[in-house]
Every structure is written in structure tokens, then in C-alpha cells.
Design goal:
Blueprint: H1 12-59, H2 61-89, H3 95-142, E1 146-150, H4 157-186, H5 192-201, H6 211-222, H7 241-253, E2 263-265, E3 270-272, H8 273-290, E4 294-296, E5 301-303, E6 308-309, E7 311-312, E8 326-331, E9 337-344, E10 354-358, H9 361-364, H10 370-379, H11 381-391, E11 395-401, H12 409-412, E12 417-427, H13 431-480, H14 483-494, H15 502-524, E13 527-535, E14 543-545, H16 548-553, E15 562-570, H17 587-591, H18 612-618, H19 621-627, H20 631-638, E16 639-642
Parallel strand pairs: 1-11, 1-12, 4-7, 4-10, 10-11, 14-15
Antiparallel strand pairs: 2-3, 5-6, 8-9, 9-16, 12-13, 13-15
Helix pairs in contact: 2-3, 4-8, 5-8, 13-14, 13-15
Length: about 650
């Protein structure tokens, strides 16, 4: 039996009418959406064309201005000659010619002013943003993978280095995603949802710096019956996953002429599908699990959005050899003495897609330092620098120092590119964006200030008036002792100042947000201009001035050439990402014996400071000398006992 209770009081006719109206509006919405899309594409294309045209005009502004003024001057001269001929020959004064001259001159002046105004409000920022994009392209596609940046103090070396690092990190993320997307298209037979799930669950296997161990872990996972080589269900019928795995193993041992229908031939190399899948799992872990791409010897905020700090680096990570074993005599619990062998740890955690960043290079690894010579020779650091390209892909080494020739020659002679910083300039951005915000902020500030002033006056008036009334009723009560006056007094006590008006409060909030937004825009869209020389020699000789465009258009590498160029970086790529005074902590070792006092820095964390423990881990002899690190500390850190 149907229930007589209605679940809704709505009318069926109303529901139908609403439905029909919604259906009728869908085509109209689509039309408007299409019109908006087409208009956006047209406007965007025209804007791009105009920006490119303006860029060309600005690059040739001096020549174009001269030509334009010459044409205007010629027209003015012709009109003047006609006027003089008429005036002296026929004694006829044609004032219209004078007005023509005046209007042409005025029009020229107005046109130049308008172009100047446009440049300051719109064109300048557009050109600077174009330079930023050119710098990005140069760093990503043209800059050598091992560079040294040098120059005098406070000139912008770290700004340049950190900005290049930030650009490379973005580039790494972009390229990894692009590579993963490409692998997904090639390896169509695999279930990538399962692949990514397994990669995350067994991520510890892909932390391994050893490619062989990663490969063995991948083979083990692919061979598990529940994963069946990560094949999609529909391919399990035609592909035997055991045979596919055996093919992969054979392809590992025969990289020359092994053939299979599941091989990918790039034209340069041939890779088995499972090889690509192995790489995919590593890239997935590299991008979404490890996340860090920077190993650095100064505090660096790698990702401002998540607060991710970069990893510490150490010379021990670059070591391709170890020191000899240490024999130490130790007293046992029973009072006897025993010789124990201590073996140095092997620490080599480096991976592909890594940026190795060394700042204060000539301080940590100076030339003509016997301890540094011994360090380089013992750990084979020069060999690492010479052969790192054979060990890793997408591995960049960035070095910062004051004088490129002060660093040890054995390491210095391998540097492929030298960037000498000459000047650094900050250019606050978002002028056109902030122009509107400034206007709105002035309005909100006016009303917020005016409202606040009114609130203060109202408060003062309130307490002034209420006190008078209270005194008045108090006097009446004391004179008559009537309860009604006492009640008036109590009522006055219960009165409160009227709360701040909603409108005034809203203006205060808007004003605060606008001020914050304006400051953010200035730096978010701000540009740092670095004037530098780029050369393949430590000393820039035969210096030539050039532009980023010309450097990008070069098809040949530097060969005994030096160029002076302006590099343009976003402020957000360097500012706020590192503590540019963190080296003050190094002075603590010297300051121990000084009468001066200063605050001891804490652990290497989001405070972006350096500590003694980090110096010990980094392994720089100079740092150990600064901090007076003794041998016992190094043995405890670097060695483990070996039972014999």
C-alpha cells in the first residue's frame, strides 16, 4: 500500500519547469563559453604579438627614435620653408601653417610621453618578464652542468647561484613529469595505477643509490605473482609475465643486439619495456617521495609552499675511496687491553636528478692548503668531479667563491664555465597590478582611518556624557534617596561603548589585505638584475658585451671567449630561500677566545642556520679547524669497529 505521507511539498509542475529551463540554458551557456574562449584566444594572441613587437621596438628604440624625430623635423622644416616663402615673397601670413607646426610638435611630444608612460606601467614589466624567461631557458638548456660563480663580497653570488638552483629544480620537476608521461605512452601494456601504488609501498627499495640494488628490487617485485610484471588484465592472456621477466634479464646482459617485441628503440639506445618501467618507478619515488633535488652546504628553502628544506651535503658523499683502517687500543670491562680495528664508513647517497651546491668554495677548499691536498688525494675528490657525468644523469655542480683561482687547482681546472658577478640590482615588480591596488588601498585606508577616528571620538564622548549623567543621578539619589535614581545609576553602569561598526571593520580588513598583497606583488613579480661575465677561463679576457638572446642563438660552445651579459631572476627564486648571513656561525670557532659574545646557532632546520654537528658531517678541513674538531669526534662519526 502506498504511503499517504508526501516526502516533499514541491509541485511536480515546478520541478519540470525548472528542469526544462536548465536544459534550455545549457546551449546558451555553451555558446557564451565558446565566445569567451574564442575572445580569450584572440586577445591572448594579439597581446603576445604586441609584446613581441614591443620587444623589438624597445630593442631598437634609439635608432627608431632618431628616425622618427628626423622625419618630424623634416616635416616641420618643409612647413617652415613654405611659411617663409609665402611670408617674404607674397607678404602673406598663413597662420594655419604655424598651427600645423605647433600641433605636429605637440603631437610628437604627447606621443613620446604616452610611449614612456606605457613603458613604465606595462612595457617595462613585460620586457623584464621576457628576460626572466630567457634566463630560465639559458639556465635549463645552455648553461654548463658544472659552473663556478665568483665575485667580491655582497655582489650577488648567492643570489645568482640560488636562483639558478631554483630554476633547475623547477626544470627537474617538469622534465621528470614529462619523462614519466612519455614512458606511460610507450609502455601501454602496464597498469600504471598498480605501478605507482607498488612504488609507493616499496619505496625504500628505490632509495638505494646503487642502481644494481634498485634493479634487483624491481625484478623481485615484478616477479611476484600478485603483481605479474604490472601487466594490465587484458594483456595477461597474450603475454606470459614469466617470459617477459626473463626477457628483461637477458636484455640486461646483452645491451647490443638483444631483440624483442617489447623493446623500445630511441634511435640511440634500445631499452626493454621493463627497463623503462623500472625507471618510471624510480622517477615516481624521486618526484613524489624523496622530493629533494638539492644537496647544499648552506641552509636553503627548496620549496616555499611546503617548507621543504634542502639536504646537507658533505665531502664524504663525493668520496670514491676511504682512509686506511684505524687500530686503537681500548681497555675492556675486565681491565685488559685489546686492539680493535676501526673501518671508515662508506657514504655515497647521491642519485640522478641532483644539484650539488657548494658555497664559500675557496674558504672550504682553498688552494695551497696541505690538509685540503691530502683530503682530495685520500678521498679521490678530483676523480669524482672528473667522472661524475659518468655516474649520474641530470647532476649539476654549482660552486660559489670570491676568487675562482683560490680554489685548489686540481678541482679548479675541471670547471667548464666561469660566471663573474659584477653588479646586482633589485627591481620591484607588478607596477600595473599594484597601480589599481594602490588606488583601492588609499580608499580603504581613508575610510578605515576616518572610521577609527570616529570610533575614538565616540568613545571619548560616550564616557564624557555617561560620567556627567552618572554624577547627575548620583547627586539626585543622595538628595532624595529615591530608588528610581538609583536604578538610573545602575542602568548607566550597564551601558557599554558601541562596538566598532561593521563597515569600519571591513575597511580595516581590506586595507590590511591590500597592503599585504601589494608587498607580496612587489617581490613576487620583482626582478633581480645580475650583470656578469660568462667565460670558459678564470680570467675574462677580450670581453664582449652581448645579450641573452645572442647567447641562446649561439650554436657553438665558449672557446677562449668572454661575454658581459645581464641575467634576470625572479626575486622569489632567491630571496627568502636562504640565510645570506649564515656564515656568521663559522666565526664562533674563532670567537671562543674573543671577548665578543654572540648567539650560538641551533640545528640545521627551518631557522636556516649552521651548527658544529653539520660542520663535522660536511668534512671540510677548514670547517673542522674553525670548530676545533678533534680526532676522537671524527673517529666516532666516521668509523665503526670491526671484530677480528
Amino acid at each position: 500500500m502506498k504511503s499517504e505521507i508526501r516526502l516533499s511539498e514541491e509541485s511536480a509542475y515546478t520541478i519540470w519547469i525548472n528542469y526544462m529551463l536548465e536544459c534550455a540554458l545549457i546551449p546558451i551557456k555553451l555558446i557564451f563559453h565558446l565566445i569567451g574562449l574564442i575572445a580569450g584566444l584572440i586577445f591572448g594572441s594579439l597581446l603576445k604579438l604586441w609584446n613581441k613587437l614591443y620587444d623589438k621596438l624597445y630593442d631598437n628604440k634609439a635608432h627608431l627614435t632618431k628616425v622618427f624625430l628626423k622625419i618630424v623635423g623634416l616635416i616641420e622644416a618643409v612647413i617652415l620653408v613654405i611659411f617663409l616663402i609665402k611670408y617674404f615673397w607674397n607678404n602673406e601670413c598663413i597662420t594655419s601653417l604655424l598651427w600645423w607646426m605647433l600641433w605636429i610638435a605637440a603631437g610628437t611630444a604627447v606621443l613620446l610621453i604616452l610611449f614612456k608612460l606605457y613603458h613604465e606601467l606595462f612595457g617595462r614589466q613585460s620586457i623584464l618578464e621576457g628576460y626572466v624567461l630567457l634566463t630560465d631557458q639559458y639556465v635549463c638548456y645552455k648553461l654548463a652542468s658544472i659552473i663556478k660563480i665568483f665575485g667580491p663580497p655582497r655582489v650577488g653570488k648567492d643570489t645568482t647561484g640560488i636562483s639558478i638552483t631554483s630554476i633547475l629544480v623547477r626544470f627537474f620537476r617538469f622534465m621528470i613529469k614529462k619523462t614519466m608521461s612519455y614512458i606511460r605512452k610507450i609502455c601501454y601494456i602496464f597498469d600504471f595505477n598498480l605501478v605507482e601504488t607498488v612504488a609507493y609501498l616499496y619505496r625504500r627499495h628505490f632509495y638505494q643509490p646503487s642502481k644494481i640494488k634498485r634493479q634487483e628490487a624491481f625484478i623481485y617485485l615484478a616477479g611476484m605473482p600478485r603483481f605479474h610484471c604490472f601487466l594490465k588484465e587484458r594483456y595477461l592472456k597474450e603475454i606470459n609475465y614469466h617470459e617477459l621477466l626473463e626477457e628483461y634479464k637477458e636484455s640486461i646482459d646483452n645491451k647490443v643486439d638483444f631483440k624483442s617485441k617489447y623493446m623500445y628503440d630511441s634511435g640511440i639506445s634500445k631499452l626493454h619495456f621493463l627497463n623503462l618501467l623500472n625507471e618510471y618507478m624510480f622517477l615516481y619515488v624521486r618526484l613524489y617521495v624523496l622530493k629533494n633535488f638539492v644537496m647544499i652546504n648552506q641552509p636553503y628553502l627548496e620549496d616555499p609552499e611546503t617548507g621543504l628544506m634542502a639536504k646537507e651535503n658533505s665531502v664524504y658523499f663525493m668520496a670514491l675511496a676511504s682512509k686506511e683502517d684505524e687500530l686503537r687500543t681500548e681497555i675492556q670491562s675486565d681491565g685488559s687491553k685489546k686492539t680493535i680495528i676501526y673501518k671508515e664508513k662508506v657514504e655515497f647517497p647521491l642519485l640522478d636528478w641532483t644539484i650539488w651546491y657548494d658555497t664559500e668554495n675557496d674558504t672550504w677548499l682553498p688552494n695551497r692548503d696541505n690538509t685540503v691536498e691530502e683530503l682530495i688525494s685520500t678521498y679521490r675528490l678530483r676523480d669524482f668531479k672528473a667522472f661524475y657525468g659518468h655516474f649520474f644523469r641530470h647532476f649539476h655542480i654549482i660552486q660559489i667563491c670570491h676568487d675562482s683561482q683560490r680554489m685548489n687547482k686540481k678541482l679548479r681546472e675541471l670547471d667548464a664555465c666561469y660566471i663573474n658577478i659584477l653588479n646586482r640590482e633589485e627591481i620591484l615588480g607588478a607596477k600595473k597590478r599594484n597601480a589599481i591596488l594602490f588606488f583601492l588601498q588609499k580608499i580603504t585606508d581613508y575610510f578605515a582611518s576616518k572610521g577609527e577616528l570616529k570610533e575614538e571620538e565616540r568613545t571619548e564622548n560616550f564616557y564624557s556624557k555617561i560620567q556627567k549623567k552618572y554624577d547627575f543621578y548620583n547627586r539626585l539619589y543622595r538628595a532624595t534617596m529615591k530608588d528610581k535614581y538609583f536604578e538610573k545609576m545602575e542602568e548607566i553602569k550597564r551601558r557599554k561603548v558601541k562596538e566598532v561598526g561593521i563597515i569600519t571593520e571591513a575597511f580595516k580588513r581590506w586595507n590590511e589585505r591590500l597592503l599585504e598583497k601589494i608587498d607580496q606583488n612587489k617581490r613576487k613579480h620583482g626582478i633581480i638584475r645580475i650583470t656578469a661575465t660568462i667565460s670558459d677561463q678564470p680570467v675574462a679576457t677580450n670581453l664582449q658585451e652581448t645579450t641573452l638572446k645572442k647567447l641562446l642563438d649561439r650554436d657553438k660552445p665558449l672557446y677562449h671567449e668572454s661575454f658581459k651579459v645581464d641575467l634576470y631572476f625572479r626575486m622569489t627564486d632567491s630571496m627568502g630561500r636562504y640565510n645570506d648571513r649564515y656564515m656568521e656561525s663559522i666565526a664562533e670557532a674563532r670567537a671562543v677566545e674573543s671577548i665578543l659574545d654572540f648567539y650560538h646557532v641551533l640545528n640545521w632546520d627551518k631557522r636556516m642556520e649552521i651548527t658544529r654537528n653539520i660542520i663535522v658531517r660536511m668534512g671540510y678541513p677548514a670547517g673542522q679547524n674553525f670548530m676545533k674538531v678533534n680526532k676522537e669526534e671524527l673517529i666516532k662519526l666516521r668509523y665503526v669497529p670491526v671484530e677480528k
